Amino acid sequence: MKHKACFLKEVVEFLNVESGGNFIDATCGTGSHSEEIWKNLKGKGELLLMDIDDLSIKEVAHKFHDRGVYIVKGNYAKMDKFVKRIGWNKVSGILFDFGIGLHQIEDRTRGFSFKYDSPLDMRYSKQNPVRAEDVINTFKEEEIERILREFGEERFSRKIAKEIVKSRPIRRTSELVDLILRVKRRKGKIHPATKVFQALRIFVNRELENVKEGIRVAFDILKKAGRIVTVTYHSLEDRIVKDYFKGLEKEKRAVLITKKIKPSISEIQRNKNCRSAKLRVIEKL
Ligand SMILES: C[S@@+](CC[C@H](N)C(=O)[O-])C[C@H]1O[C@@H](n2cnc3c(N)ncnc32)[C@H](O)[C@@H]1O
């Protein structure tokens, strides 16, 4: 299934793509935002696409093979090194569309979704030594409880952690889902396993640490009047961005270009993955 990107038009507008320059799509996924940036750039600049996941890189390598863009597989928290390597000094605009893409959720071999039975992997990068299975089967009960509480805001974290330790070894997503359903009743539209899967994915991929470091490095390599646009999907990552941007504004190193933007009703109708999306923009002074 193809990933549908949120805030396609807004991203291009806020990045000032039409004025030209060199841009980074730091989380290119299957390249919907990249495509929009590339189209609006109209040859007046350069584009670097980054992603940590082989599947994303394979998709964009195919899609952009004849378009003269740079494509790099790597962690955006290290984007300064990649930028140097391709010979850029400072950058005009950087996009972060955080979190996970539909292409990854729907990949039945990766363990990201509670809808499919697969091994408990959940890594974006195969170089990452920690899989969800390692957390589930080797971490202490208190540690698992903390992960579920901190990264999933899961109210049943203690009960679920206890049940996990009792039911080990747990190798597959279906076993984890069954165990959660023993502890937590289904209520409303949200699946009871949603928060546990989110928490494990965030922990395994060090997502919050990367968000923090990624926006800091991005600001360092930004030109004066250059912009960072972020799209976040949950309060944990949004808080990190909000606090960092506010700090920069207070120190008079950047201005907030807009208040936090939420998707319109028509955007949510078109793409329900945008329900919780929030867009933020800063410009470097
Ligand atoms: C929401 S998707 C982006 C979708 C994309 N904007 C599009 O138009 O298809 C988020 C992407 O960020 C990537 N990602 C997550 N953590 C990353 C990191 N630390 N460095 C680089 N990419 C990362 C994921 O692999 C995923 O492809």
Please mark out the parts with pLDDT under 50 across 5 or more consecutive residues, or reply none. Answer: none
Shape: globular
CATH topology of the largest domain: Rossmann fold
Query: Could you tell me the strand content as a percent range?
Result: 15-25%
| Major β-sheet strand ordering | 3-2-1-4-5-7-6
Using the coordinates above, name the CATH class of the largest domain. Alpha Beta
Q: Tally the helices.
A: 13
CATH architecture field of the largest domain: 3-Layer(aba) Sandwich
Q: Name the ligand types.
A: S-adenosylmethionine
CATH homologous superfamily assignment of the largest domain:
Vaccinia Virus protein VP39
Total domain modules: 2
Number of strands: 7
Report the helical percentage. 40-55%
Report the end-to-end length measured between terminal Cα atoms. 41 Å
Outline the biggest β-sheet.
7 strands, mixed
Compute the CA-based radius of gyration: 19 Å
| Secondary-structure element string | HEHEHEHEHHHHHHHEHEHE
